[in-house]
C-alpha cells in the first residue's frame, strides 16, 4: 500500500507543483493588471467606471493584455520610427542618477541573455571547481574583455582570447552562483543541452540526461 501511495505521489506531485506555479504567476499578473485598472478608473468619469469594473472579473485578462502589449511593443520597435523613439527613451533613463545605474545593468544583462546573436548560456561544460580534483557543471557566457582580458594574459600566461567567462550555478537554486574566468583548455565540453544541464543541476544529479540523446550528440559531433 505504501508503494502505491508513493507511486501515485510521484505521478501527481510534478503536475500539482506546475499548476501551482502557473496560478501564482497568473495571480501576480492579474493583480498588477487590476491595480492599473483601478488607477485608470479613478480618473475616468462615472459613466465609464462601470465598464472598467466589469473587466476586474475576467480571469486571465491580465496575461492576454501583457502578451498583446509585448507584441505591439516589439512590432513598434522593429521599424525605424520605433527604434528612434526607443533610443530617446534610453537617453532619458540614462540621465536619471539612480535609475541610470539600475537600468543600464539590467539592460546589459538582458541584451546578453536574450539577444539572438549572443552566445550566453549556449554551451554546458565541466570545470574543475572549487579545486583541481573536483568537477562541476558551468555555462559559457562569453569572453573576458577590456582591462580584465589584459590582466588575464599577464597572470596566466595564456592569451586573453583563449579565456572564457563562466557561470557556475548553485543547486537546487540555479539563479544564484559564481562567475569564473578560465582558459578554455581547462574545460571539458558536454554533449548535453543547456536545458538538460539545468535539470541535472536542479535535481542534484538525480535526473541525468537520456543516454540515447548523449550518444546521438556524440556521434553527430564525430561526423
What tags apply to this protein structure?
223 residues; alpha+beta; 5-stranded antiparallel beta sheet; 5 strands
Topology:
Blueprint: H1 2-43, H2 46-55, H3 61-77, H4 80-94, H5 97-114, E1 124-128, E2 135-142, H6 146-156, E3 163-169, E4 177-183, E5 188-189, H7 194-202, H8 211-222
Antiparallel strand pairs: 1-2, 1-5, 2-3, 3-4
Given helix and strand content, the structural type is alpha+beta
Would you report the number of β strands? Answer: 5
Portion of residues within helices: 55-70%
Most strands sheet:
5 strands, antiparallel
Shape assignment:
flat
Termini, distance in Å?
51 Å
Order of helices and strands: HHHHHEEHEEEHH
Question: Within the largest sheet, what's the order of strands?
Answer: 4-3-2-1-5
Structure description:
The protein is an alpha+beta fold and 223 residues long. Among the domains are: 2-59; 124-207. It contains 8 helices and 5 strands. The chain has helices at 2-43, 46-55, 61-77, 80-94, 97-114, 146-156, 194-202, 211-222, and strands at residues 124-128, 135-142, 163-169, 177-183, 188-189. α1 (2-43) runs antiparallel to α2 (46-55) and α1 (2-43) packs across α3. The longest helix is centred in the first third of the chain and has 42 residues, at 2-43.
Amino acid at each position: 500500500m505504501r508503494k502505491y501511495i508513493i507511486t501515485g505521489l510521484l505521478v501527481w506531485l510534478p503536475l500539482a507543483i506546475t499548476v501551482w506555479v502557473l496560478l501564482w504567476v497568473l495571480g501576480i499578473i492579474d493583480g498588477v493588471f487590476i491595480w492599473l485598472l483601478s488607477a485608470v478608473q479613478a480618473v475616468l468619469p462615472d459613466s465609464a467606471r462601470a465598464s472598467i469594473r466589469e473587466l476586474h472579473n475576467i480571469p486571465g485578462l491580465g496575461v492576454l493584455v501583457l502578451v498583446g502589449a509585448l507584441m505591439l511593443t516589439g512590432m513598434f520597435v522593429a521599424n525605424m520610427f520605433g527604434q528612434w523613439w526607443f533610443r530617446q527613451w534610453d537617453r532619458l533613463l540614462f540621465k536619471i542618477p539612480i535609475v541610470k545605474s539600475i537600468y543600464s545593468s539590467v539592460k546589459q544583462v538582458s541584451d546578453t541573455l536574450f539577444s539572438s546573436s549572443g552566445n550566453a548560456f549556449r554551451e554546458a561544460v565541466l570545470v574543475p571547481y572549487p579545486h583541481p580534483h573536483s568537477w562541476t557543471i558551468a555555462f559559457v557566457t562569453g569572453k573576458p574583455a577590456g582591462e580584465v582580458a589584459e590582466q588575464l594574459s599577464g597572470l596566466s600566461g595564456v592569451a586573453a582570447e583563449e579565456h572564457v567567462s563562466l557561470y557556475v550555478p548553485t543547486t537546487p537554486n540555479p539563479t544564484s552562483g559564481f562567475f569564473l574566468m578560465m582558459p578554455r583548455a581547462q574545460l571539458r565540453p558536454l554533449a548535453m543541452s543547456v536545458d538538460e544541464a539545468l535539470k541535472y543541476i536542479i535535481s542534484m544529479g538525480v535526473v541525468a540526461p537520456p543516454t540515447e540523446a548523449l550518444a546521438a550528440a556524440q556521434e553527430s559531433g564525430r561526423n
